[in-house]
Task: structure prediction
Amino acid sequence: MALPLLLASSGELLSERAGVLNLSVEGMMLTGAFAGAVGADASGSAAVGVLTAVVAGLLFAALQALLSITLRADQIVTGITANALALGATTYGARLVFGDGAGAKTLPGLDPLAVPLLHEIPVLGPALFEQTLLGYLAFALALALALAFSRRRTAGLAVDAVGEDALSADRSGLPVTAIRYGTVLLTGVTSALAGAHLALSEVHAFSDNITGGIGYLAVVAVIAGRWRAWPTLLACLVFGLAQSLQFAAPALGLHLSAPLLVALPYVFALLAVSGLVGRSRAPSGLTVPFVRAS
Result:
């Protein structure tokens, strides 16, 4: 349950550290899930579906970057509007492509691949080493981004400089606009892969609003993680655990209210951003448009 969060938050972490808030992660995920489902259904190949999802995520992110960075539109308003547009467009598109029984149609999907010996480790083995290719990609991508963009490396320092003070970064020769565009496009790719994971790895189907607010949780995970890679990973695991309880609790003999279990991840999210888990400081230039000094 944490894997889609981990994928989406990996790109969003860098984007926010560069000064761009993508509340449209939910819409990117939803678009990626729909595009992946259409691609897989039309071609009969889950791999083609994943590639289709990536292309759709890039196009969505390019539009978001154009509005937020070039046109300097309000990042919060554009993000919420983009999510609403994605929900309406994918719901309508599913009716056109799959008919009224969109959620009932089984799509070509990705099957779990067990790592020999490692998947036999008690508890952790099945959780970590019986994933689909997208699942393993989520782990690898999160690790690669954490290492490549750590604050001790040049790439991480450049991203942080743009997010803290874009004007000073521009005067020092950093391509502020290019860095911000790059991080938003990366968010589009990771979010689309997260959506494709939901549709092609978990359920092998597409249904209306299949993301169900997971994109917002990915944004909150970045905030709860204080804009750092490893704490963000931990936040994704906590939110994933909270989500899984609605399915695991009955099997464990825990008779808890179903609506409470559904709401539990968002309760954790509220606690995370309220400051009860520790204060954090957002990048100074987050949501601040970059205007080059004359």
About this structure: The radius of gyration is 19 Å. DSSP finds twelve helices and two strands in the chain.
